[in-house]
Amino acid sequence: MSHRVPVLLVLIALMAIPNVGVHAQDQETETKMRAAGAAVEVYKTTEDAEGAPVSLKLYVFYPDDHKPTDRRSAIVFFFGGGWKNGTPNQFLEHCKYLASRGMVAMTADYRVLNRQGTKALKCVADGKSAVRWIREQADRLGVDPDRIVAGGGSAGGHVAACTGVIEGLDESGENTSVSSRPNAMALFNPAVVLAKINDRPPLDPEKLKGLAERMGTDPRALSPVHHVDSNAPPTILFHGKADETVPYWTAEAFCQAMKKAGNACELIGFEGQGHGFFNHGRGDNSNYQSTIRELDQFLVSHGFLEPQRTSKSPQLTTIDLGDDTDRQVIVDREPGQYLGHPTTCLLEDGKTMLCVYPKGHGRGGIVYKRSDDGGLTWSDRLPTPENWSTSKEVPTLHRVIGPDGTKRIIMWSGLYPARLAVSENDGLDWSPLKPVGDWGGIVVMGFVEPLKTGPGHYLAMFHDDGRFFTADGKRSKTFTLYKSFSTDGGLTWSAPESVYQSSDVHLCEPGCIRSPDGKRLAVLLRENARRKNSHIIFSDDEGKTWSSPRELPLALTGDRHTGKYTADGRLFISYRCQSPVQSRKDRPFEGDWVGWVGTWDDLVNGRDGQYFVRLGDNTKGADTAYPGVEVLPDDTIVTTTYGHWIKGEQPYIMSVRLKLSELDQK
Question: Sialidase domain: which residues (predicted)?
Answer without folding.
Answer: 423-576
